[in-house]
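To the wet lab folks,

You asked to see what we're planning to order before we commit. Fair enough. Below is the target structure as tokens, and below that is the sequence we designed to fit it. If anything looks off to you, flag it before the synthesis order goes out.
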């Protein structure tokens, strides 16, 4: 049975969603939507589906099993609530929302409508991150007690995502949100955190360098991100990870070098990201994770399992993310859950 779906927001990153969906023979793209007529026409021409410029018109006209929402955060709540009101299951891009109240409303709308809801948070679905998760769950390093999840580059992110230039809140809610999810995936939920951040680039509105120290149960984890880190090797958009445990250490370094020290055993390998035909460096690991994320969504629709990044579970991630700003603004430690 093919699941019928629509994609809303045929902009920059949605191209990866569309390519990944096009690989799958158990879904049918019946419609695409964007307020930008040229963009939606191009998407329909390349990937198929009827083209709409208004989401309400689309939902009124189409019979859908799910909708893939790839717009920017200001429209996420409206789109998710619209989907839920039509009994259509939404998967929605990150960050889910810029306010907890909006995120809660989306989760409640989907639960009231009885439709599954997932956030397209794909960093945890990157191949290297699945390897790290599996090694930790297999007990390879014992109990983790220290972590660092780091994303540092001077890449010009603004050319492809110009909406980030004027975002009053930037690298924490757009990048660190991914890193918090990885830290929580590997080490569990934080109890508290403290944030330092600043703006280095005078031409943007928000913070572009941030460091967050999180306190987990019997562990600490540093999450750090920068769009102003100059080096001789631009590793954008790679994420580096260190997890230290009572029996060993896992390190993910530049260009997917993974080292697992487990007791006296050392595994050193350079991971190879599958070439999907439409993927290309430097985005290939993220593009491959888009496919994995979307396959997970379909698996959950088939089995009824709650997605790893369900809307409900993402409320905790958003509390951490917005709590990082609360700590930055107060100068004090943030007790996780205070905003929920
Ligand atoms: P974008 O601006 O390039 O694309 C968004 C599209 O949505 C635009 O074409 C816009 O016209 C359209 N749109 C806006 N309002 C609409 C409405 N009411 N109805 C229909 N269409 C509407 O943005 P982007 O850089 O592609 O980012 C989109 C989302 O993807 C953001 O939330 C961003 O954080 C996220 N993103 C995720 C990843 C990742 O998964 N790793 C990477 C980059 C961006
Ligand atoms: O994946 C993302 O959300 C992008 C990136 C952080 C890679 O620049 O915005």
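Sequence we intend to order:
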């Amino acid at each position: 049975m093919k699941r019928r779906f629509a994609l809303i927001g045929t902009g920059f990153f949605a191209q990866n969603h569309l390519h990944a969906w096009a690989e799958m023979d158990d879904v049918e793209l019946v419609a695409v939507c964007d307020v930008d007529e040229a963009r939606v026409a191009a998407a329909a021409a390349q990937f198929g589906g009827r083209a709409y410029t208004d989401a309400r018109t689309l939902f009124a006209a189409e019979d859908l099993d799910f909708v893939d929402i790839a717009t920017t955060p200001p429209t996420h709540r409206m789109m998710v609530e619209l989907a839920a009101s039509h009994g259509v299951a939404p998967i929605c891009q990150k960050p889910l929302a810029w306010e907890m109240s909006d995120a809660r409303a989306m989760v409640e709308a989907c639960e009231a409508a009885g439709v599954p809801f997932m956030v397209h948070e794909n960093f945890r679905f990157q191949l290297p991150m699945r390897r790290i998760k599996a090694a930790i769950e297999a007990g390879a390093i014992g109990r983790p007690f220290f972590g660092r999840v780091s994303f540092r580059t001077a890449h010009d992110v603004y050319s492809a995502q110009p909406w980030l230039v004027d975002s009053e809140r930037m690298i924490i809610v757009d990048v660190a949100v991914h890193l918090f999810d990885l830290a929580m995936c590997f080490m569990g939920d934080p109890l508290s955190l403290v944030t330092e951040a600043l703006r280095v680039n005078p031409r943007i509105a928000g913070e572009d360098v941030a460091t967050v120290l999180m306190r987990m149960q019997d562990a600490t984890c540093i999450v750090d991100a920068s769009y102003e880190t100059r080096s001789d090797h631009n590793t954008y958009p790679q994420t580096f990870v260190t997890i230290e445990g009572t029996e060993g250490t896992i390190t993910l370094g530049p260009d997917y070098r993974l080292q697992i020290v487990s007791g006296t055993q050392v595994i050193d390998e350079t991971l190879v990201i599958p070439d999907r035909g439409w993927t290309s460096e430097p985005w290939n690991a993220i593009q491959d994770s888009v496919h994995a994320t979307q396959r997970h969504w379909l698996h959950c629709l088939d089995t009824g399992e709650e997605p790893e990044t369900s809307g409900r579970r993402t409320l905790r991630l958003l509390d951490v993310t917005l709590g990082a700003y609360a700590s930055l603004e107060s100068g004090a430690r943030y007790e996780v859950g205070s905003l929920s």
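Structural context that might help your review: The chain has a mean pLDDT of 98. The first strand starts at residue 3 and ends at 8.

Thanks,
Computational group
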